[in-house]
């Protein structure tokens, strides 16, 4: 099992490279939920999401031999960009396998951070096959987005920093997708504040963690039609084992609750978060857990959202 | 003339009520302009803009007799909301005269902060007449948005905090509309860092400060068609006198440069700023002033922008 001490070690390893993201508070939010809420703003992390912590921690722990060969992943979201940027910083080659129907903006962002992008057919089978073939040919180290202890240790450093800065907390709300962030958050929280409760928040439309938590075994969803695109992934055995032990409750939020929480963050707190990043606050605002008079930590996991459509509206206002 | 000492006094007066807004930095921004840039994020101020500083400072300095009667303004932007919130905090009545064609969202926001809204015809004459009549009837104290020393002293506390936190600066970029923020910024900057240059940034489409600075007298624009709606106002003699003495250069930015700077702040720095709030960064990015290897302060003045249209797009993604 991963320990608090290992998260502390990871923090020492990465803290001069990743951002110590701000902890933000809002009088309006505190008044609304009658609690003291501390938002850990991982949208201000390098490349825009907490994924940077785990990716940098993982690559920096590879052997020199593995570093010389390079790393590979077939995620196409924030993990790919985090891996690309971390690899560049460490002088390691990064390869990202993406389906050929990926939005050009994602391909460009990943290339922008210095990764080699290999396009494949838009099926999971093709992604895995393409990845395996490249690993066989070049000896790349596969860095899974969450089924990896060093990823989890790195992810846990966000809650670690939050609690070190905000002090003792009663509750910590954290989004859950594949469970890497939640695993790290739960270990850091229980380690630093044994009495604190860890609340996982999941989109109702991608409720595999909720079902798994109830059933006691990993349950996989076939469809995951949620706007919180970073949370469509399923748990793995590694993260589920940690979550079962450390998480107190898994709650579900609707798509509307996610959008409303995101809107609150943008309008009232002036923070650009992506839908997945607003899910934890949606959990707080949903009222399913009593927060009154408590000290509440909330992990806002990232801020990478396509603003093209919004800026088309802005552009129209000034003409040309 | 307003002194640094008076800004320090204002800061002591307001600091427990207004937010000490964060100073944010960005590796991407620093790399792009090859400088160390410190953004003073007044979008995170209470009610969303620096206006809170001057409004709270001004009302708290009124005599008990004036406080008992109440305050009035006929601005309908951030100043009105700042006045309303400050008055509520201090237990003072606030009246805001607004044209009856004002967007309902602005009327609601001002009422939401506890002000009484009086609607008038949508002409400057009607606004002034309505305001004068109410002052004659009720003895309200008129709080002008910038032609007021206590407003300027309060506004200066943003740059004061910035320099106290970031340390010695070589350049400070500040937007200019009526000149209240610029006046306060320039006094604080020259007081704390006598060698620093103060650069005023103005939309090309509302270039009265630029023209006034060149001409040596207050020049008024007839049309001010800029997306930076907070900067459409003209200088007054009070602010012009301060600006002539303390500001080193006034530069102009195009509408496209304003939108591009705003997009950079949203996409790369994850900060919601309004167009007026992005004008100072547009000045930095425009390359008109050499910033290389310098320590550069940038006042991001506010973040109040109507997000309705954007969230209609988001809402459409989840249906209903």
Q: Can you describe what's shown?
A:
The structure is a homodimer of 320-residue chains. Chain A is an alpha/beta fold. Chain A has two domains: 4-49 and 150-300, Rossmann fold (3-Layer(aba) Sandwich); 52-142, Rossmann fold (3-Layer(aba) Sandwich). Helices cover 48% and strands 15% of the residues of chain A. Chain A contains 14 helices and ten strands. A six-stranded mixed sheet of chain A has the order 1-2-10-7-8-9, with helices on both faces. A four-stranded parallel sheet of chain A has the order 5-4-3-6, with helices on both faces. In chain A, helix 1 (4-14) crosses helix 8, helix 3 packs across helix 5 (78-90) and helix 3 (51-60) packs across helix 8 (149-166). Chain A starts with a helix and ends with a helix.
Keywords:
14 helices; Rossmann fold; 320 residues; six-stranded mixed β-sheet; alpha/beta; homodimer
Short description:
2 copies of one chain form a homodimer. With 320 residues, chain A is an alpha/beta fold.
